[in-house]
Write a structure and sequence with these properties.
Elements: E1 5-8, H1 18-33, E2 40-46, H2 56-69, E3 75-80, E4 83-84, H3 89-100, E5 103-106, E6 113-114, E7 117-118, H4 119-129, E8 138-141, E9 148-149, H5 150-161, E10 167-170, H6 176-186, H7 191-200, H8 226-238, E11 271-279, H9 283-291, H10 303-316, E12 339-340, E13 343-349, E14 353-358, E15 364-376, E16 379-390, H11 392-401, H12 403-427
Helix pairs in contact: 1-2, 3-5, 5-8, 6-7, 10-12
């Protein structure tokens, strides 16, 4: 009750009978819209090419728009091609194909023309469409300022992401249905979803008009270029913003970033190894251990430091595990940006979380997060999270190949830290020591 605008963003491509499902759902909404007292429906559909046989996906989008338009409630249908931003199925397929396939067999559909649009511009139009006068009830094409072939979008993405140029080998006999099978092998997207998207790429999806500008001006600063939209979508990993998927409610996130409600396959590959242990010491003692990483008498003498350094060295083939740790400017207080051996202090949320970033060449980006949480009664929870954002197929292979090594070494790091904290807590303000020299990485 009291709702005046309905945003209709429903589409059922994961189901084989999605055409019937979508039509029935739209018919129900259309029949009830007038009784509900709505004054506006806003729907995001797909660009409908002129004089072309439509895929089931695009035909379904057009049918849903028609049904909603017959509801008697003023309806604005925003017709878009590929939406660029995390969580968009079109963008996620593009992301995985580009990052995981340096050599691509390119069927005919990769040569179709596409006019992508940034997710922030779609949201802008969605917001403004709700404010249109009731006499405006029609479909509008919306698109960004750039037009590419799908192969061109892949190559541009690779350049922006710092990947090697993608090589395309034509294979005109490879149908969208067959393509969906090999896409399913190399990406986490469901095959039914990939198949529907690929069938749509049999059609050029280019705006045939820009009539919406007569009712809604372009966004301030103009429509977002494809390169900028991709940059925004990739900024999460580039800027080390790992908290995106685990953010607290109310965090202000850009619309191009992933959301906790996105499907598992959204947001690109982000692998993690998590260890949690309860420590019979308060969180303050645990945090003091974290802060002493840069001290002459702190972690630089603890087995955990050697284990972490050895793990990184072996992971990337670096043989300098005997290099001394850098020191903090203050023996018991770290500062963001400080270099500590192969690590750099990237973020401190004192006294809860310390994030280190591996500052060495890797086919991806690697972080180690250490966090402390007080559980009361002199007990705290130690949480350790190693996170790897792979860069291309080599990065994916590296993470997969190091599975057993990660389990052994990272589990040992968590064990060593909690043991050292417990010993320190029992002994009082003694030095964190490295009993027995041990072996770097062991």
């Amino acid at each position: 009750d009291g709702q005046q605008v309905l945003y209709y963003l429903v589409h059922s491509m994961l189901k084989s009978d999605f055409v019937d499902l979508d039509a029935r759902a739209a018919k129900i909404v259309a029949d009830e819209a007038g009784h509900a007292g709505l004054v506006r429906i806003v729907y995001v559909g797909g660009i409908i090419p002129d004089q072309q046989q439509l895929s089931d996906h695009l035909a379904s989008r057009a049918e849903v728009g028609r049904l909603l338009g017959e509801s008697g409630v003023p309806t604005v249908e925003l017709r878009a091609a590929a939406i660029i931003g995390a969580g968009s199925a079109s963008f996620e397929m593009l992301r995985y194909l580009t990052e995981r396939l340096p050599l691509m067999i390119t069927p005919r559909w990769l040569r179709t023309r596409v006019q992508p649009i940034a997710i922030r511009d779609v949201l802008y139009y969605l917001t403004k469409a709700a404010e249109l006068p009731s006499e405006v009830s029609r479909a509008f094409d919306i698109g960004g300022p750039d037009t590419f072939t799908y192969t061109g979008m892949i190559r541009k993405y690779a350049a922006i992401a710092g990947l090697q140029r993608r090589v395309a080998v034509p294979a005109p006999v490879l149908s969208p249905w067959l393509s969906s099978h090999w896409v399913n092998l190399i990406t986490p997207l469901p095959r039914a979803l990939a198949s529907s998207l690929m069938e749509s790429l049999e059609n050029d999806v280019i705006c045939t008009e820009h009539d919406i500008a007569e009712h809604i001006p372009d966004p301030p600063g103009g429509l977002t270029h494809y390169e900028d939209a991709v940059e925004l979508a990739l900024a999460r990993v580039r800027d080390g913003e790992l908290q995106t998927r685990w953010s607290r409610p109310g965090d202000d996130e850009a619309p191009s970033r992933p959301l906790p409600t996105d499907p598992d396959w959204a947001g690109g590959s982000l692998h993690e190894h998590v260890s949690e242990r309860r420590v019979p010491a308060d969180a303050e003692t645990l945090w003091e251990m974290f802060e002493s990483i840069g001290a002459d008498h702190g972690w630089s003498a603890a087995p955990v430091a050697w284990a972490i350094r050895g793990w990184i060295g072996r992971l990337v083939g670096a043989g300098r595990a005997d290099r001394a740790l850098g020191h903090s400017r203050h023996p018991h207080r770290l500062h963001a940006g400080e270099a500590l051996d192969w690590w750099r202090v990237e973020h401190i949320d004192r006294p809860y979380l310390l994030r280190l970033r591996a500052d060495i060449p890797l086919p991806g980006r690697l972080w180690l997060e250490l966090s402390a949480c007080d559980e009361g009664d002199g007990v705290s929870c130690y949480r350790q999270r190693a996170v790897f954002a792979p860069h291309g197929l080599v990065g994916e292979a590296l993470w997969a190949a190091s599975a057993l090594f990660r389990d052994v070494v990272l589990g040992g790091i968590a064990r060593d830290i909690t043991a050292a904290v417990e010993e320190h807590h029992q002994a009082g303000p003694a030095v964190f020591s490295r009993p027995g020299a041990g072996t770097p990485g062991g």
